[in-house]
Amino acid sequence: YTWPNPQLDELESQRYDRHGYNSRALSAGVSPCKNFLFGDTAGRANAADWIRTAYHDMATHNIVDGTGGLDASIRFEEDRAENAGDGFHLTLLVLTGESNRYASLADVLALGAITAIEQCGGPKISFRGGRVDATVANNPGVPEPQQDLASHIAAFTRQGFTKSEMIGLVACGHTFGGVQHDPFPNIVPESNDPNNTSGNVRFDSTFVTFDNKIATEFLDGTTGNPLVVGPEETNSDKRIFASDGNVTMSSFADAAVFASTCADLFARMLDTVPRGVQLSEVIEPLPVKPQGVYLLLLEDGSIQLNGEVRFWNTSENPNRKIQIKWKDRNGNPCDGCSKAIGHTIDQVSTFVANNEETTSVWYSFNQSATEFVTFDQHSSISKFWFEVDEGSGAQVADQNGASFEIQDVVMLADSSCRITSNLTLDIAIRKDVIPSRVYLKADDFANLAPFMRTIDVPPPASTSGGDSYNIWSISDTSLNRGWTIAVDVGDKTYETAYLQHHVFGTCS
Ligand code: HEM
């Protein structure tokens, strides 16, 4: 995709910015893989809960009528017997906080599962974005261990999976985690282990690692999987795994076959959404990605460009020099529209999948850079790009000629300020446009899922702000999550970058 695309930019960041500089929160929840944020560390793991939650959320899908699928409806379904245990509740507690207007809770549930799998030894999984959060529960239909094989085959057929895909998906899921005593006392006896108060009995000997031991231990008879060696009535894994004469499970003795089969099945599981929901293309990392880019109208009348840029799959090079270059408001090249941008050795991040690490380096054109990028408000900016010199001549990084576009119709003025939670926003709007509406778009939450409110900004009593801009002002105490400022002009909407952590001075 082409930057800027606020939704895909945000999903790309949550998907790929895992460790180190500018890392997002999901990976911390499963680092290390045995991490469990709610006490009892030996028996449970967030990684297992996040994967199980994604499956149970999806498992209501009906391929015939198109209802159900990965849509975060699990939050209305937690009290059903088929959703026994507190894993869903605990998962939602963590993952809700990562959702926002661009990343639905359902997208974050998918990302949580992908992060857990990829980071804990699993293969890279294709991720598409655009899931829509349900507002009510779906029909029940998550398989339960005491049900017979015929009903499990029927349940997976309804979800869109064949019998061998059912065997695969159960094995891929059950390479993580286990069964706890509390929700399943008939399957797992009470535990006296002070380190494992949930009494969790694991599906395989490596319960926080993606590997094919779920299959090899089943095949060689050493498995302790409580859904294989437990009471016959609830041995659903035993019935499922053996349902094709062990053909599928035997193929998983080859670790590469297991990994590639699981990569496909997990991706299909996560892409199972209610009919009518349109998912994006598979989101790949942008090779050169600006982030947090915004314009600020300063009190001296100049405009400041703030932001950072990530160079994917790149390592440190002390000889590297990077320039940001830009064109003026009218798309014309301009003298002096070029500046060296800054980097320090802590501006490095990493991403893990397939047991391989990818390194990225970041450069800044903001407070942490040596100097700000500023320009005159009359000439302003319309697009920018980078020139990267690794020591052997400059290469252009401009999205294959498209450059990185930025609008200058609306931006925050530096005179904006705060008194505790009361923000006074001074909004600079270009004088040569006639806005039909100026409003804030503010993120909010209902039933653990994000939604957007709008707050209209009243027109200014008098005009000010220099030759090119008028200042509109509003005070608001409710902007405690992400927000943008939008301006409707004709049938176009201009919108600022998504502001969340902007630092305001205190109002005088
Ligand atoms: C017939 C189908 C299935 C049945 C009957 C089944 C049953 C169960 C049961 C009884 C538990 C124990 C839950 C607890 O004690 O908290 C469990 C855990 C788990 N299941 Fe399944 N499952 C099935 C399919 C799947 C699939 C398709 C996936 C994912 C692809 C999956 C992923 C998990 C994970 C990761 C756990 C571990 C949770 C933890 O340790 O907290 N399951 N399953």
Description:
Belongs to the peroxidase family. Cytochrome c peroxidase subfamily. Keywords: Heme, Iron, Metal-binding, Oxidoreductase, Peroxidase, Signal. This is Peroxidase. Destroys radicals which are normally produced within the cells and which are toxic to biological systems. Residues 104-317 form the Plant heme peroxidase family profile domain. The protein has 508 residues and is of the alpha+beta class. The chain has three domains: 32-270, Orthogonal Bundle (Peroxidase, domain 1); 288-405, Immunoglobulin-like (Sandwich), CATH 2.60.40; 410-506, Immunoglobulin-like, CATH 2.60.40. Helices cover 21% and strands 25% of the residues. The protein has eleven helices and 22 strands. It has helices at 6-16, 26-29, 46-58, 87-95, 105-119, 149-159, 163-173, 213-219, 236-241, 247-251, 255-270, and strands at 19-20, 178-179, 201-202, 288-297, 302-311, 321-327, 333-340, 348-353, 356-365, 373-376, 383-389, 394-397, 404-405, 410-413, 417-419, 422-430, 437-446, 449-456, 469-476, 483-489, 492-495, 505-506. The strands form four sheets. Strands 1, 4, 5, 8, 9, 10, 14, 15, 16, 19 and 22 form an eleven-stranded mixed β-sheet that branches. Strands 6, 7, 11, 12 and 13 form a five-stranded antiparallel β-sheet that branches. Strand 8 (348-353) and strand 9 (356-365) form a beta hairpin. Helix 3 crosses helix 4 and helix 7 (163-173) packs across helix 11. The longest helix has 16 residues, at 255-270. It is elongated, with a radius of gyration of 26 Å. It starts with 5 loop residues before the first helix and ends with a strand. The mean pLDDT is 95.
